[in-house]
Each structure stands twice: as C-alpha cells, then as structure tokens.
Amino acid sequence: MEEYKMRRGEYLEERVPDLEGTIEDYFGPITATEEFKGSDLYVVEEPKNPVFDRIVAGAVEYSGKKDKLAVEFHERELEELMETGDVDAAGDANDAKNDFLLECTGRDAKSRRESMKRAVEDDADKPDNV
Fold this sequence. Notes:
Shape: globular
C-alpha cells in the first residue's frame, strides 16, 4: 500500500470532496471497504480497465497530521494481458493512475517520485535501534 501526501498547504478533503465518486469515475464501482491503519478504504473488485485486477484506495486519517491518500493497484501479469489481448489497455491504465493521483494530491509523477525518494533517504539517516 502506497501513501501519498498532498502539496504543502493543501488537504485531501479540499482537493477531492467526493473521494468515493472520484474513485468510481476513474476505476469503476466500489464493491467493498477494507481497513488500513484504522481507516476504511474503498475497494474496486472489478475495475473498468482490464489491466487492473483490484484497486484499494481512500483517505488514511492521522491524529494531529494531514490525511494521506492510500492506494494499492493490483495489476494482471503481462503474459496474462497478452493472452487475453488486453496489452493495449496498459497505456490507459497508467494514464488513469497518474491522473487520479494528480487530481487527489496535486502532485505530478515526478514530484511524487522525488518525495518518496526523500522519505527513503530520511529513513536511512535514522539510527537503528541497537
């Protein structure tokens, strides 16, 4: 599960007041919810795009901190896509993921990558519990 933060000074609930509707617009009908870190996330069991097997997305609430967007994309294997002739949908799936994350976080793919890279580097600087 990946967690994404918003741009400085922005909040998820302000950027996307109807997160449930936005998820449905991009990926298909929500069929269930799943608990993650004390928050209920939306599950799309049969996404519109055949590249995806399942999608879990929603807001993770932290006390005293800004909410984060949590997303997990379960994708089919390339061999399976080739067998069913769905390889052409891969570009659309990638666009849908990036557009969804941009709309929710206000950050493009490059800035999301850089942010995650900084987070990993910050974790590496912390001393291990010895």
